[in-house]
Queue: 2 jobs
Job 1
Amino acid sequence: MSAPLSLFDRVWARHVIVPNPGGEELLFVDRNLVHDGSTFLAFDQMRSEGRTVRKPKQTLAVTDHYVPSAQRATAPASIANAEIRRVVELLDINAREFGIEHYGVHDARQGIIHVIGPELGWTQPGLLIACCDSHTATHGALGALPIPIGQSNQLRHVLATQTVWQKKPKTLRITIDGVLPAHVSAKDVILAIIARIGIGGAVGHAVEYAGSTIRAMSIEGRMTICNMSIEAGARIGMIAPDDTTYTYLHGRPFAPNGNNGADWDRALAYWRTLPSDADARFDRELSLNASELAPMVSWGTSPEDSSPISDSVPEPASVTDAEKRGRVQRALDYMKLAPGTPLASIKIDRVFIGSCTNARIEDLRAAAAVIQGRRATIPAMVVPGSTAVKRQAEAEGLDQVFLAAGFEWRDASCSMCGGSNGDLVAAGQRCASTTNRNFEGRQGPGALTHIMSPAMAAAAAVTGHLTDVRTL
Amino acid sequence: MTPFTTLTAVAAPLDIAKIDTGMIVPGRFQRLPRRAGHADYARVFLHDLRFDAQEQPRADFILNQPVYQQAGILVTGPDFGCGSSRESAAYATLDFGVRALIGASFGDVYRGNCMQNGVLTIVLPQPVVAGLMAQLQAAPGARMTVDLPQQIVTAPDGATHAFDIDATRKERLLEGLDDVGVTLQHLAQIEAFEKQYRADMPWLAPIL
């Protein structure tokens, strides 16, 4: 009888080419995802060294960070900022030169890299997925092993070798049991976890999310949870595949379908061997009761600065740890918030629904359900996570719900999450945002970000202040 | 990358502490491609220290003195390369023509990135660095020698200073082996792994 293994241990072990217990091990990369960020540096370096991509079929490139969310028909030629235009063009040039498939500005498969990977079935249980982005853990929601890498030297290494050197992290299982109350979503679960363990709470660990709440959750919700693992310091977040996963994957373009269905059956048989053994050991364990959770909003400049909407802005004076007290005070100064202010009274200037965290079809449905028959009282925009999500939402009539409520309905892009494409929150403006980071200046210099779920962001659009969607 | 063995070059004294990677390559150049010839990254190296708002060279900045146009060695203040992990800082250093830096301390990530690009960072005790700085300031354009096989720096006055370097890093620099080169030494093992993996997972064949 072999030793019990966790999902993470099993998938890791399956990919070790050069073992080196305790040190960096050489791992096989099944699939590599490249976006337009600063990745041109990796290609520039490869070109100057005369290197080629070793396994071009195992890499997929897509433009998402710098692509405009409006006036797409004439892009990239119409992108006013020459540097941004150049970055978008460079991915196209580099992909062609290095023989990589690329979903460009006008491709129906284009979208945010972490949205399209699962959507196309490129992401599958048991595969090692490398991606030059800190939110790569999203792919772990399907039971893949996500490895975030750097955009220059590490990406170049994956392209040139189809391998990656990694030190095996410790393991942390977070078990969430119980039924989520109405209007409490996956976003609220992960914000509650981060608020509890802190942004450094899972550093050095691969997290497995488990429990009945996760089992009952859609793949979209699971992706929202895994996506923000890095906001608790974990580079890897995973969820064991189950029938929800297999149903989601079946029939997607890259899902196994050859040999008259025999390939699917063989893949499925393998996937079913992946979940953690009942007696698998984890270096750490945490548990959470879903039924006690409430809609969350952030009030500070780190995702851990999040509280239930019924709370107030904390009093720095009541924070016992001196270092944390100073940090909270600085956060409130930046956020222009007075201690003790009820969170639900904070006025909002604009709303952004989008990003790799919350721009999948289920997120848009949740926001549309809140906004249906109501009107936004402040500027608000929806940026679907992929062109396919946009088309599906339009087929369901969600675009009409948003447009009738006064929202802008844009094209798939990372957009206002980090503002790389120029979609910025103005200095001093306060934004209710479905994104993953509320760092100082994340959405633009001087921008004030509150992160929350799509339903909560939609509620804020209606009232113009942070709002408990349950009371709307 | 180009192997590093022995380098004799003009050494420039850059007597400023804590030059971070954002000063080595300001953030607004993050979208700058690095084309063949690398003139662009040579230009942005320490850009705001070297050039004013009108893009004119600052006459009072040491690297703008004609004698340092060919500097191949920099003697730096402490913590050179601290700050963000941007690899462009190492590219700019190399493209400016610098192959060796000598200081009392360096930013960790920057140091690793330099090694990957064939640029040697040498840590010497602060009094030794201060002595080198003084000699170079007294004799602008003086040359120094860095002997990696012997792990010795020769000062303008002829004095020699031994330095430490991790044995693996030394070997990689001497052979011109970056991470990719090291990994490809395992190529037979990688190919054997892939063959077995493909056999075990036939349903992945369309994209493996």
Job 2
Amino acid sequence: MPREIAFFDALIPTILLALIGAAVVSWTLDWVFARYRLYRLIWYPALFRLSLFACLFAALGLAIY
Amino acid sequence: MISALDLILPKSRLKRALVPWQSLLRDWWREDAQVLIYIAKVVGACLLALWISLKFELEQPRTAMLTVAIVMQSRTGMVFAKSFYRLIGTIVGITASFVLVALFAQERVLFLSAMAIWIGFCTAGSMVFRNHQSYGFVLAGYTICIVGLPATITPELTFDIGMTRISEIMVGLVAATIVSDLIFPQRMWNMLLATVRRRFKDFSDLLASMPDSMSRQDHGAGAAALRFAGDVFDVENFRASTALENDASRAHRQRLSLLNAEFMAVSTSFHALEQLLRRQQRSSHPAVVHAIALAYKPLAAALQYDGRSVRTEVEAGAVLQGVRNAKASLPQRLAALRLELQEALSEDERLDFETGAELLQRFADELVAYAGTYAALTQQGHALDIKEAEEPPPSLGLHIDSWAVSLAGLRGALALGAMTCLWIFADWRSGIEAITLGVITSTLFATSPSPERTIRQFSLGALIGTVLLYIANFKLLPYAQGFTMLSLALIPGLAIAAWLTTRPATALVGAGTFIIFLLHIGFNSAYSASPVAFLNDAIADFIAIGLAASMYALIDLSNGRWSHQRLAAALRKQVVSACRDALPQHRVRFESRARALMQRAKGGRRIADAQDKELVDWLLSTLETGCAVIELREEMQSMKDEEALDALERSLDRIAGLYAKPDSASRVAALISIKETSALLNTIDMMFRIAPTQRRTILTILHALRSALLDDDSVLARKAPLPEVVHAA
């Protein structure tokens, strides 16, 4: 994967796109969890959400580098 | 197991000795500890943002810290909402700066006038929207100063300046949201629930005191109406902030909105009932008032739980059946009373009774709906969801005064113009700082109910901030080495500012302290404070704040007779459009619009003087007449008879005329027209042409309207006194 992508001739880091992608995926998962009340099973939802996001972002980042 | 304490003290005495400590501890945890936790959160988030910025070698770590200070609030959901709008506002503002720099970088007059237009536009936008959205607009406006002005000096660096700014803000937002979400999060839901509970309790207190409080001639009604209007928008604002928060509040958003709409309806009906009884007490047969009060009492009594007002939605669920029964038996009670009164009353007095009965019936329906929604608020059932799907309650819209909006825009643009003139002609080194702060202060407080007081508090905060800044910049920071010592040097200032923001009375002082302290804190990536720059910046700050204060004093939209009259006229115009619009309005929309006008002007403040009281009276009069008019028009839609419709249209037009231009002549005209219409509906001919139930409903509405217009205590009577002759008639 290229580390920088040209966006209207401005070079933006690919990791920024990964960040946005991870945010979208984790929001979707968050919605699903809330909709089916799966947060009942989790001790500290806020921490879980953050960790989930960190995992997703790290996975995407590792895929790039 | 026997502990050491048990040996010293007998068990029961030990327990007794500990009781005061326990309650003390609990109080401390509930109040002081929360404040300490909040301060620790703010300071922690600031330092986290600072650390990340330094690690990433961003140019101005202070922007990240300032962002934290701005978005940090005690409720997690609010932090999310404000962060979201801060991000959007910044992105829009930076994009606008890019465009302006690309177009006019060489031409400073054109550049600055385009900037003034943009800022004016954004300030006007901030007046149209509420809360965080409004803040987003302000931010889009002043970001152009922060990014665009430095860019005029070095146009080739514009893109870098913009990107750095947005990265710093992102760092600040991430730090603030993570800290407030992870460490002792305060969920919106608890706050919403508390507000909704308090409102229901207040309302049932009011219901319980109703027949007795009638005799007292106080103006509790106005105060209650203003407070309830405030509550409606509080709940709406909290509800809007829950969009990004993930707890019970998101699942219940629809329900809360329904609850709000029902509350508005029931409080208006209650007020109408109260007014009607008050008027009847003076003019009608005492038996009528007594009978209505008698029929009303079981309703209020059913709402009591164990002899006191209902405190939670669970208790409301327990009394709900009782309220339903009271409502179901209401027609019987009214029929019995009607029979009893038959002989004693004249035709007019009987109509008085019917009007009261009709209103009571409507009030009971709405009360049951409101109590039912409230009781079901936290239930997980699906009974309510079906109802919600059928008819989502209309949202509380945006209602603006276009004059006020454009004047606020003008004010923002003028502030920029004045500061830039000073900058250009005096060739002043701190000009950019002064312009930025001047624009921030003269746009940020545009939506505050009393900008003058706001800016006074803000400048006190700026003073404190400057003192703290001096100490930090020249006494502490020069000795700091490494991140730990840097943090130690910053903590006192941050903590004092955060503590100021925790108390409602000094919240704005705290905001001023924070902004000044962090705007000029003496380091970027290395120590960079110099006494000359410090003095220059301090002078620039105070000139900017002084300019903003004089701008608010010059273009004052919140106080003074002019704005009061405009507001009263805007309220009356609601009635006019309720009468004259081609299609009848939705009642919830009408009510929320009238209340929004009031809320925007007065905020949650108490009624301070005679002018304020007059405004509240106009609000109540508008609500009462407007709702009756809307109801009448709904009835008229199903009517066929041309002659009666014509007469009713004419009466509506006269009422509209009265509210458009309240004077004695139009009041007399409206009263005569209503009387004529009632007389027409009472002819034998009409009795056959219109269905009896419909005829009775319309007659009672007309009667209610007429008695509202006749009322000598109302604000209408003060504005448009009736000539003596009419009185006698």
